[in-house]
């Protein structure tokens, strides 16, 4: 079994153990490659394991030995599933590995906006508290989360985890999803109501034709001026230009963004200079615990496929 691991440098900073995969065959590693480099790198591969490399129908046509594509991720919009199906190539993802890690980042954003903790830390280190006439120094926004409305788009593993955390700290949880859940313990509303009512709105839906640019000028117009948007799903769920304009004119209070349409970030991305926009470089999935689970599950997926009992097949 010849296995090619692409995007190696997106998976580790030297802290990951690839031996569970190495036990399954002859492994070749490549860091992130340009599109024209993918076919030469994978020409002899029986299986390729990818993170964000785009595997198109054209690429598959040039890889006659390819029988399996494993994804170091939950999302799979970077693989042409129809083409893989037509060629008998199984595509397997890893659901659920980053649930705790992403939910933790969501609340890091939420707590930051609720407490202005970065502003207070910076002010103290500028010496402003030293010269305060009293101990009471609170020029920046401070608000309790208890009683605030947490709106969640999507109710998969991460959406459910975020809802539980929000409920635990006393937030009122609203859920909007493309289908109704009979077992959902929270109020389910349509998209318009969710945007209208949310104090903090967090996105946990896949990127597809229905969700593309879900956050746009029209939906932003529905929101409270005090509202905050959090996006840890996919960059394309948000119209970046519309969000930047809403932030710059004070239509909403802030945004916490971990994903962008183009990654790494383009210098001319409108969110780069937008007011009250906190941006992290797609780190929601990247805790050491999350990546360790991911590595083992990718190996388990490949092992199951090799024994004729594939799991987590998405095509």
Helices and strands, with pairings:
Elements: E1 2-5, H1 19-22, E2 26-29, H2 35-42, E3 47-50, H3 57-61, E4 68-71, H4 81-86, E5 90-92, H5 99-115, H6 117-125, E6 149-153, H7 157-168, E7 172-176, E8 187-188, H8 191-197, E9 200-203, H9 217-221, E10 228-231, H10 240-248, E11 254-257, E12 277-279, H11 288-306
Parallel strand pairs: 1-2, 1-3, 3-4, 4-5, 6-7, 6-9, 7-8, 9-10, 10-11, 11-12
Helix pairs in contact: 5-7
Q: How does this structure look, described?
A:
The chain has two domains: 2-95 and 288-306, NAD(P)-binding Rossmann-like Domain (Rossmann fold, 3-Layer(aba) Sandwich), CATH 3.40.50.720; 99-279, Rossmann fold, CATH 3.40.50.720. It has eleven helices and twelve strands. The protein has helices at 19-22, 35-42, 57-61, 81-86, 99-115, 117-125, 157-168, 191-197, 217-221, 240-248, 288-306; strands at residues 2-5, 26-29, 47-50, 68-71, 90-92, 149-153, 172-176, 187-188, 200-203, 228-231, 254-257, 277-279. It has a seven-stranded parallel beta sheet, with helices on both faces. A five-stranded parallel beta sheet has the order 2-1-3-4-5. Strand 1 (2-5), helix 1 and strand 2 form a beta-alpha-beta unit. The longest helix has 19 residues, at 288-306. The protein starts with a strand and ends in a 9-residue tail after the last helix. The model has no long low-confidence stretch (mean pLDDT 97).
């Amino acid at each position: 079994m010849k296995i090619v691991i692409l995007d190696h440098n997106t998976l580790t900073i030297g802290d990951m153990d690839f031996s569970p995969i190495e036990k399954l065959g002859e492994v070749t590693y490549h860091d992130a490659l340009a599109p024209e480099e993918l076919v030469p790198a994978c020409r002899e591969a029986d299986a390729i394991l990818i993170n964000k490399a785009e595997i198109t129908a054209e690429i598959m046509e040039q890889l006659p030995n390819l029988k399996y594509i494993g994804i170091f991720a939950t999302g799979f919009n970077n693989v042409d599933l129809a083409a893989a199906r037509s060629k008998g190539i199984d595509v397997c993802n890893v659901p659920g590995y980053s649930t705790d890690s992403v939910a933790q980042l969501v609340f890091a954003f939420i707590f930051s906006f609720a407490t202005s903790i970065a502003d207070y830390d910076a002010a103290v280190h500028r010496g402003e508290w030293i010269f305060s006439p009293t101990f009471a120094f609170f020029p920046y926004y401070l608000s309790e989360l208890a009683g605030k409305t947490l709106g969640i788009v999507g109710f998969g593993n991460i959406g459910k985890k975020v809802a539980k955390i929000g409920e635990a700290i006393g937030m009122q949880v609203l859920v909007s999803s493309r289908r109704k859940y009979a077992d959902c313990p929270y109020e389910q509303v349509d998209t318009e109501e969710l945007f209208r009512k949310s104090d903090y709105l967090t996105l946990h839906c896949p990127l597809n034709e229905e969700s593309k640019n879900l956050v746009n000028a029209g939906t932003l117009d529905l929101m409270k001026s005090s509202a905050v948007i959090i996006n840890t799903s996919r960059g394309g769920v948000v119209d970046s230009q519309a969000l930047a304009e809403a932030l710059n004119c004070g239509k909403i209070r802030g945004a916490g963004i971990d994903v962008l349409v183009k990654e790494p970030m383009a210098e001319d991305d409108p969110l780069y200079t937008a007011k009250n926009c906190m941006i992290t470089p797609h780190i929601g999935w990247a805790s050491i615990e999350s990546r360790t689970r991911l590595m083992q599950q990718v190996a388990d997926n490949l092992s199951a496929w090799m024994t004729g009992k594939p799991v987590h097949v998405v095509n």
